[in-house]
Amino acid sequence: MFSATRPRTLDPLARIREAIDRGAAALAADRRERARGLPGSLDPAVTWLAGEQAVATLDEAVGLRLVDESEHGAIAAWLAFAAAYCARRDARAGAMDLDAIDRDASRLVDAIGEARLRTEARMRGRPRGPDAGPPDADLAKLARGFLDATDEAGAAAAEWIRRIPWPEGLEAASAASRWAARLCASVGAEPARDPRERLRRSALRLSVLGVERHLERSATAEVGIADGDPRPRVVALDPPRRLSIVVRPDAEGAPAELAALEAVGRAAAFAVRSVALPPERRWPRTATSARALGVAFAQLAADPVYAARMRIEAGDRITRTAAAVLAQWARMTAARVAWPLPPGTRRGAAFDELYEGVRRAVGDELPPALVAVLGADVEAARTELRGLIAGLALAHRARDLFDEDWFRNPRAAELVARAGERGDGLSAEALLEELGAVPEAAARRLAELVLR
Fold first, then answer.
1. Which one, 260, 297, 352, 371, has least CB within 10 Å?
2. What's phi and psi for 48, nearest 5 deg?
């Protein structure tokens, strides 16, 4: 697992345009080789091309096993946005200039909105699968309840992040840019010489759960393009036999630590999927049980017990920063679900509600254009929130079942098997029910990590 390759140097526009064509050709070739029909299904390879926020844009193309001109244009819209996003990084601080994305955001919001409408039309009348999740209204209610229950933790997280000094050179930058720089500050991470080092380290530390063995059998790691998102892409090429984790060369700080553990957990769940599953269950679409395992692993970056057992240097500083970032991630996702935007929305009453919700979630003002982008793909946010809620609740339950250092208990390998073996035939909600966990425990676990 994790063979060595040299990280790419990226000219933000030219190299990404090359990646569009290269990626589209590779995806189409892979579909022809497999020649299996999965109407309406979503292969995670799409996230390698487009990023998780724009995943709905390619749903139709993946379902038909091809990438046609309209979908190619939507990929281009997302990647052009990502290129502009990265090109505006401060050279000295590595911070995002979040106030300069309005022009690109409009194009992305429109592309995602059009794709959402096409997807909704195509899925209308189809039976709901076992991982379809609760009705949208119930999820919105759950999201609002989670925000209410974590307001104290959210305020503490925002205060902790405000206390992180922003890097030299950002004195005149916007508040939003300084917020982004603090999130990615190196004080929240262990050193990593190579973008894949965090993956290797995370898998090794969880080897007692069988994670290293599963990934060694099935997964490779590659260095992808810099697109402003620290999260690795877990590409299920032929689960459980063939997986790829694509890491970002520009991932920094606590988000990179959380993201590496999350990716390792999700990939481990894919690696134990039964080969006997029918294709629609074996290839991940929503994969909320796998996402839950990923979040249960991710929250370890914020766990002082994990830091102590793994003898992480400066563990208190790192775990507190990771806890603050985790709180902002979870609460921002909850806001996107609690106040969903109609497709293509960039202003109006619905947008104002979301804007206030995001401000409450992170304790800071973000540019309206960025909020519009965050709210554009509400289906992705719903799937992500289900994984976040279930993953935090799963971690809370794991301590009851296997003690506070459950990640070092061989019996806890059962969690990996349960989260993965049945593929998309098991929802995150059903996984919690099987283990005797409740969604309300998610807020309690987040509060434990932040308020200490």
1. 352
2. -65, -35
